[in-house]
Every structure is written in C-alpha cells, then in structure tokens.
C-alpha cells in the first residue's frame, strides 16, 4: 500500500511539471502530496492499542489534507495547463487508495439480557445512555421477568429497544441469541443487567475497533463495593487482570472475554461464533471459537465495567462452581482444535494443569510436611499481599488490605471448588448445564 502511494505521489509530481513554473498551485500540490505520504507512513506504523489517540489524530490530519488536495486539484481542473481527465483520474486514485484509512464512524450497539433485575437494571441502562460517545442503539432482552423490570424498562421509552421473551429461558445465552437478531451495529457490546459501564467504555471500544483486524475486545472488570466478599473478588480481579490477563494478551493467548465487558464485530460473530448452549460459560465458548478461527482479540484495561459480585458465601460458591464447571466444559469441547497452536497449549496448561497441581498442594502439603507448608504459604501470601498493597494504592481502597485474612480462606475455598468441578466434569462427565443466578443488591 505504501508503495502504491509513493507511485501516486510521483504521478502527481509529473502532472505538476506541466503547470507554469511560477504558479503557486504547482508547489502547494506537491507539498500537500508529501504531507499525505508522511501522515500515511506514520499512521500505518502504529501497532499498539495504547496508541489509539495518536491513530485518531493522525487519521483526522490525513482526511483534512486529502480534502485540501482534492480542492487544489479541483482548481487545477479549471485551468488549461493539463488534461482534465488526468486530474479526475488522479483524484479517484487518491480517494480509492486512502478511503479505507479515513476516520469513519463505527456503529456500536449494546446488548443487555435481563431477568428480574429491578434492583439494578435502571442504573445499568443509565450508564449506557450517559457514555461520552453515544452508542448507536441499546437492546435490552427481557427474559420473561416477573418483577418490576418490565415497568422500569418501559420508563426509558424510545431511548432503548426492549424485546421480551414471554417465558424465561433459564439461560443467559438463549436471551443473548434472541437479542442478537435486533442488533444493527457494526460492533456490539455484551454486558449484564447488574453492571455499570464506565462513561468512556463505548469510546474505548470505538477506538479499539478502528483496527480492522480486531474481531473482539476484552474489557476490564471491577467489583462494586458491598462487603468483605466483594472486596476479595476485587483483589482476585486485580491479580487475574493486571498480571495474568495482561501477560496473556502479549502472547496472543487471551482465553476469557468477560461476559459483562466484552465487544465483538457483529458480522464476525454471526458468521463464525454464534451460540451453542452446551456450556454454562458462553463468554469462554466465544473466546475459544475466535482462537479456532484465528481472529484477533485485544485486551483494553481502559474499557472498564463495574459488576455486582455475590455478597454471601452461598451465592459466591454457586457462582464459582458455574465458572469452573464452564471452564472444564469448554476445555473438553475445544481442546482438539485449540491445541494446534503451541502458545495455546502453553497457556491452557498454566490455567488448568498448574491450577490442579497448586490446588492439590494446598491440601496435601500440610499432611506431608507442616514446616515446608509454612514456608510455602508464607511465600505465596507474601506475593498476594504485595498485590493487595498495589491494589490499595492504585484503587485508593484500604479495604483491600483489611480483607486480606479473609482472602486467605477464599483461596482454599476456590481450590476445593476447582477440584470438585474437575471431578464432576472430567472424570464423571456430568455435563451440568444448570444456570445459577445470584441474588442481587440494589445499586445506589
């Protein structure tokens, strides 16, 4: 592409040789063509998603200079120095070559499935409406709600599109599949009715999808603050996203696009992803399919969503069971196709094999050597405490330090559930597809 633009610049130079030597337009055309070439080379050199602001600015400059060049050529066309057909041909070549790189709007939709979400749905929708970049549409799927949810949705009138399923499907993915039929945007964001999107979420997604190779974006999840248990979840998110997920993104082995903070190119999703309903974690299923089709997934830490995590142990245990169960279900489903790429095998081994080993050691080492266990636990939790300090400083949340003794217990609980779901899904092959919906708290 760069070679073609260089050739086109040279063609313009040859054309200006026919202009009178003292004609200012002769040199203005050359100068503008040089600027366009320089901007184009600069624009195509950006590769990181963290350079999106530069990409937008450079693209705007390119568009402005192309308009200037077009105006200059229009003036030249009305003179008798050169053949008008040659100028028109030159204008068409510039437009055809640079059009794909001009800043064009991307229609971004938001898809929200909900069932009996009267405590949180209003705040969720308000966060979608109050974006710095307005979404093209907001589609809410009412999956047979029996509480005040339909009444609340009706209060938004024509600001959102509400589609209702008469009888509850019992599974989020069925509601999403139904809602996707009503999505008209180039890109759609998936979020949950108990989630608040940061005011710049849509803007971040818009910038991310300026890279035409990007098929999906994984956003950054934070936990809404309620009690010690949700604080423990926040610490888990910090460790999982600021360390593990960031590392995965560097090696192109990102395996979780959060269901409450994900975005997909609509055409790609409909053609290659779709819904299978054979696992309890549809977001994992989507991610595996993207890898199987070798699509580009990126991770954007600035696309933030605040989600509501369980506030009691019963709900927490049920949610973790679903997450781990879905992890094993998707691993079985996609292992053969996904393991063709070495980096995928490496990352999945760290997640599942290393996960099993670590979880087993937490319970076995005390039985074998209590002194070694003390040193093992001290080192591990020293690292975790460092993460808690980091979180307390960056989030300005001292509760991340105060909850740390409780987090110690949560680590053991998670390890037990991880092994429990492994035995159920891998050894006994239960294939449990029961969907658990945690209790909600009112979002203030």
Q: In summary, what is this structure?
A:
The protein has 444 residues and is of the alpha/beta class. It has 16 helices and eight strands. Among the domains are: 100 residues, de novo design (two linked rop proteins); 202 residues, Alpha-Beta Complex (Spore Coat Polysaccharide Biosynthesis Protein SpsA, Chain A).
Architecture overview:
The protein has 444 residues and is α/β, with parallel strands linked by helices. The protein starts with a helix and ends in a 17-residue tail after the last helix. Among the domains are: 2-101, Up-down Bundle (de novo design (two linked rop proteins)), CATH 1.20.1440.60; 108-309, Spore Coat Polysaccharide Biosynthesis Protein SpsA, Chain A (Alpha-Beta Complex). Helices cover 58% and strands 11% of the residues. The chain has helices spanning 2-16, 24-43, 52-77, 84-98, 121-129, 149-154, 172-180, 201-208, 228-250, 266-273, 282-292, 313-338, 342-368, 370-395, 399-402, 404-427; strands at residues 108-114, 137-142, 161-164, 187-190, 195-197, 214-223, 262-265, 296-307.
Summary tags:
444 residues; alpha/beta; de novo design (two linked rop proteins); Spore Coat Polysaccharide Biosynthesis Protein SpsA, Chain A; 11% strand
């Amino acid at each position: 592409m760069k070679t073609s633009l260089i050739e086109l610049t040279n063609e313009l130079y040859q054309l200006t040789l026919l202009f009178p030597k003292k004609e200012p337009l002769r040199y203005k055309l050359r100068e503008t063509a040089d600027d366009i070439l320089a901007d184009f080379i600069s624009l195509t050199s950006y590769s990181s998603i963290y350079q999106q602001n530069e990409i937008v600015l450079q693209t705007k400059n390119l568009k402005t200079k192309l308009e200037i060049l077009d105006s200059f050529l229009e003036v030249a066309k009305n003179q008798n120095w050169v053949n008008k057909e040659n100028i028109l041909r030159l204008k068409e070549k510039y437009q055809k070559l640079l059009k794909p790189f001009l800043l064009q709007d991307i229609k971004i939709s938001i898809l929200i499935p909900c069932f009996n979400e009267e405590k949180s749905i209003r705040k969720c929708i308000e966060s979608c409406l109050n974006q710095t970049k307005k979404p093209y549409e907001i589609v809410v799927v009412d999956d047979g709600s029996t509480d005040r949810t339909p009444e609340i949705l009706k209060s938004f009138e024509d600001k959102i599109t509400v589609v209702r399923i008469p009888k509850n499907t019992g599974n989020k993915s069925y509601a999403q599949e139904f809602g996707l039929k009503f999505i008209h945007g180039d890109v759609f964001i998936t979020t949950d009715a108990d989630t608040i999107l940061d005011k710049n979420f849509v803007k971040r997604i818009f910038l991310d999808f300026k890279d035409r190779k990007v098929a999906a974006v994984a956003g950054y999840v934070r936990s809404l603050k309620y009690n010690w248990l949700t604080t423990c979840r926040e610490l888990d998110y910090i460790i999982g996203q600021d360390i593990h997920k960031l590392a995965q993104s560097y090696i192109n082995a990102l395996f979780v696009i959060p269901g409450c903070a994900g975005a997909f190119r609509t055409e790609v999703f409909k053609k290659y992803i779709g819904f299978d309903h054979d696992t309890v974690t549809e977001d994992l299923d989507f991610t595996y399919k993207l890898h199987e089709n070798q699509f580009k997934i990126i991770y954007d830490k600035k696309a933030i969503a605040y989600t509501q995590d369980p506030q009691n142990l019963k709900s927490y245990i049920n949610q973790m069971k679903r997450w781990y169960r879905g992890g094993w279900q998707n691993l079985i489903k996609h292992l053969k196709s996904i393991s063709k790429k070495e980096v995928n095998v490496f990352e999945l081994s760290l997640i599942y094999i290393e996960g099993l080993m670590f979880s087993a050691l937490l319970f076995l080492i005390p039985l074998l050597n209590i002194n070694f266990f003390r040193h093992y636990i001290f080192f591990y939790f020293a690292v975790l405490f460092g993460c808690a300090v980091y979180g307390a400083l960056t989030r300005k949340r001292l509760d991340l330090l105060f909850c740390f003794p409780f987090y110690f217990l949560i680590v053991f609980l998670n390890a037990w559930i991880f092994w429990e779901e492994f035995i159920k899904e891998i050894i006994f092959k239960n294939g449990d597809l029961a969907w658990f919906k945690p209790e909600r708290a009112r979002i203030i």
